[in-house]
Amino acid sequence: MAGDLFYILVFPGFLFLAVFALIADYIDRKLHAKLQNRIGPPWYQPLADLIKLAAKEDLIPRQVDPWLFKLAPVFAVTAVVTAALYIPIWRHGTPMSFNGDVIVVLYLLTIPTLTFFLGGWYSRSVYSMIGAARSIMQLFAYEIPLFLSILAPALLADSWSLGGMTLFYAHHPWYALFNAVGLFTALISLLGKLERVPFDIPEAETEIVAGSFTEYSGRLLAMFRLALSIEMIVGAALIAAVFLPFGLNLGGPAAFGLYLVKVLGIVAVIALARTVFARLRIDQMINFCWQFVAPVAFLQVIIDLVAKGVIAR
Amino acid sequence: MSDITQEQVIQTELTAAYPCLQDKVRIQRARRLYAAVSKERIGEVFAFVVRNMDFSMLCAITGLDEGETLGAIYHLARPDGMVLNLSTSVPKDRPMLRSVTVFFPAADAYERELIDLLGFQVEGLGPGPRYPLPDNWPAGQYPLRKDWTAPDQAGPQREGSENPDV
Amino acid sequence: MSEIRSRNVTIPIGPQHPALKEPTSFSVTLSGEKILQVGVRLGYNHRGIEKACESRSFIQSLYLIERVCGICSHSHSSCFVQAVEEIAGLQLPPRAMYLRTIVAELERLHSHLLWLGVAGHEIGFDTLLMYTWRDREIVMDLLAAITGNRVNYGMNTFGGVRRDISHEQKADILKAMDTLEERTKYYISVATEETTLIQRLSGVGVLSHDDAIRLGAVGPTARASNVKRDIRKDDPYAAYDQVPFDLITSDCCDVYGRTLVRVGELMESYKLIRHLLNNLPDGPLAVKAPRKIPTGEAVSRYEAPRGEDVHYVRANGSEKPDRVKVRAPTLANVQAVAHMLKDRYLADLPIVVAAIDPCFSCTDRLIDLTRDGDGRCDVITWGQLHDYSMRWYKGQGMDLAKLNNRFKCGESS
């Protein structure tokens, strides 16, 4: 019981995730700055931002339902932290693993987007409402490719738990190469999920101020920001676990170190995308996802099904 | 360069079409012509130079307070750089002009400026927001008239204050 | 989503909005993401400068006029000075003409580089913003070295210019032109190769050739619609009739075309500045101008970075102008913006508005510092101020001097 509580609240639960998220946030920002020929923030900047926001007053618009308005960010943080509990870090599986947890993780990672929508929609501000509508439109565009590309490796591994999948790929490391295409589409979908450039359409500053978050301030905004940062590392960890399932056999510190490297590597890719692309328009984003990403993700499913058939024979 | 300059060609053409402009068209320097037109004829002359003489750009409309009358100068330009300044005056108690937005949609802003800052009345100007004064600007206050001075203190008139540092 | 589709929403863009650097108000009626109607309300920055000039002497008005705009301050002051010189019948010494033109072209450089960055920011491409604004600093430093100010240069005076360009400055400028030209070539390759950039710019904010003429568009906005309209060619002023340069146009008629025109003009400006510097005539900087300007009137046109700037000045023989009229280029282009936005997406609004390069208000930098403790005021030089900022940032843990050296070594992009 105490062990579980420690697992949920401290390591690798909330506390670890929060700290790791801030570090990842720092690396993202610093790298972004370096790539842009800027100096970038000092190492404590993400924490300082969080403290500053937390110290500010929460302003709640008069017309909104205060409960929903306040609960949306809480749900967002809870969902991403819960999702993290199922993702293998230094060994195959976690104490919470069960067959089917990969589906649960994917759904838990959808919840933040829904809270962005609810929070934004019920903010009763035109900018928030447009941002909320864009969040949902975007969700439909990237969610299918993400599901397809994450589930394809599961098909090949014939296991619906992340622990089972990593175990399978640990025994057959070369099979992970079958999923190279899926890694690519999953990364693109993750950019959409995290609302990052080139898919930061729901919070396009120059058009709709801050999108869903326009009316949020203080602790509630801090929570949304934290949820996004944690979502970034959880998403990265999920992709790392599914597509780069190497090194978990090493066990203990070595595997943990490798986990950090893999996650931060994906964060670096995200920062790179932020540097080299311009923001797309919502229609361009949806077209791109449906015409290109979804078919490629589907191709991944076919590759894995064929591979599985060949292996079974 | 030939003996007859392009400026003189324009001058001749204009006086030929409108004998009333005899001696009223002045060449100040290369590419700068000025013509004073009576308020009765300005509409015709304007239409003529725009339609027949290729003055296809309206650079600006300047409003002037000339004491008894209000003056308006239409700065028209041709692609070859010729600028024709058609000026006219209207009495202060009935400062009526015809809108030129039919020729130049962009004249909208210039005409609203004449209305706001000098108190012109422009016939044929469509509805739209005022420019450049604020919506709560008091009626009958025209900052560019010579007898207008800024009210002492802040308040709704602050934007029209003479102090540029505000 | 169904709710937003079933009824039209009107959203205010401005007077205060992250996409606008200056108060203007667009009220945009949307159906979903599509713009149905745009209402433009200007005038939030009306400062009564025209009226204020009437109660100031000519020389005071000159400095006031220079502050109409922070970015194209030299444009406004030159335009005004030209009008007054025409009325007073002043003949400028050739060196003054050239110097005025050099500053004008440097101003065009920094304005276009600024625009390129802003355009990048509006479409969420902040990397371009960071790169171009870094390079813009080179131009700003040159301007500060030549005129003493980064903006509001105070270079012009009636009858000439106030400062000369020394041999060392000439060498510095020529060297900077080489660096900037190389960087600009890189931006051209980015603009022509980067897919997301092209997708966001191409086919957006379309203004056909005929519409551009009908709506009276000016400057790069008009030239991008293939309208060959440039006051530097059509109605030459200063030294523009003595230097060779090409008129850059594009037939894209969209925001992408406006980008190409501006980067093309950057390349032309480098050429122009080199030519002007290498052929800089000797002679005095200014002729003496009378305090009282004789009765007369003049219309002056000037190709500001954003388009045609028009000033009308009337003098009545006294020390003060009788009437000063200023028409900034943005006013001529605003009609075109409303036209370009119709039936477009909301996401295109910021870039379409930015594409005409609306005139931003800028603040000058501080040169009067009150010393801590004794409260004494003293003026510090540009170099001292530069060192001070370096020291201050060093105290903050950022060594900018090192960074600058790295750029100067040519490590870039």
Please give the CATH architecture of the domain at 6-96 in chain B.
Answer: 2-Layer Sandwich
Q: Whole-number radius of gyration of chain B?
A: 18 Å
Q: Which descriptor suits the 3D outline of chain C? A: globular
Beta strand % of chain B: 25-35%
- How would you classify the helix and strand content of chain B by structural class? alpha/beta
* Gap from first CA to last CA of chain B: 52 Å
Q: Could you tell me the CATH topology label of the largest domain in chain C.
A: Cytochrome-c3 Hydrogenase, chain B
- Report the uncertain regions of chain B: 153-166
CATH topology of the domain at 6-96 in chain B: Beta Polymerase, domain 2
| Count of DSSP H/I helices of chain B | 3
Largest sheet descriptor of chain B: 5 strands, mixed
How many strands appear in the DSSP assignment of chain C? 10
**Beta-strand fraction estimate of chain C:** 5-15%
Identify the CATH class of the domain at 6-96 in chain B: Alpha Beta
Give the strand line-up of the largest sheet of chain B: 1-2-5-4-3
Which two chains touch over the largest interface?
Answer: B-C, 47 and 43 residues
Mean pLDDT of chain B: 82
- The average pLDDT score of chain C comes to 80
User: Radius of gyration of chain C from the CA trace?
Assistant: 22 Å
The number of distinct structural domains of chain C comes to: 3
Concise synopsis of the structure shown:
Chain B has 166 residues and is of the alpha/beta class.
Could you walk me through the main structural features you see in this protein, from its secondary elements to its overall organization?
- The complex is a heterotrimer of chains A (313), B (166) and C (413).
- By secondary structure, chain A is mainly α.
- Chain A has one domain (2-312).
- Helices cover 71% and strands 0% of the residues of chain A.
- Chain A has twelve helices and no strands.
- The longest helix of chain A has 32 residues, at 126-157.
- Chain B is α/β, with parallel strands linked by helices and 166 residues long.
- Chain B has a domain at 6-96: NADH:ubiquinone oxidoreductase Nqo5 subunit (Beta Polymerase, domain 2), CATH 3.30.460.80.
- Chain B has a five-stranded mixed sheet, covered by helices on one side. A two-stranded parallel ribbon of chain B has the order 6-7.
- In chain B, strand 4 and strand 5 (83-91) form a beta hairpin.
- Chain B is elongated and about 55 Å long.
- Mean pLDDT of chain B is 82; it is low at 153-166.
- In chain C, helix 3 (58-66) runs antiparallel to helix 4.
- Chain C is of the alpha+beta class and 413 residues long.
- Chain C is built from 16 helices and ten strands.
- Chain B binds chain C through residues 28-29, 31-32, 34, 56-60, 62-65, 73, 75, 77, 79-81, 83, 85, 104-106, 108-110, 117, 129-134, 143-144, 146, 148, 150, 159-164, 166, and chain C through 39-43, 46-52, 54-55, 64, 67, 86, 213-216, 228-229, 231, 234-236, 297-299, 301, 308, 310, 312, 314, 323, 325, 327, 331-332, 334-336.
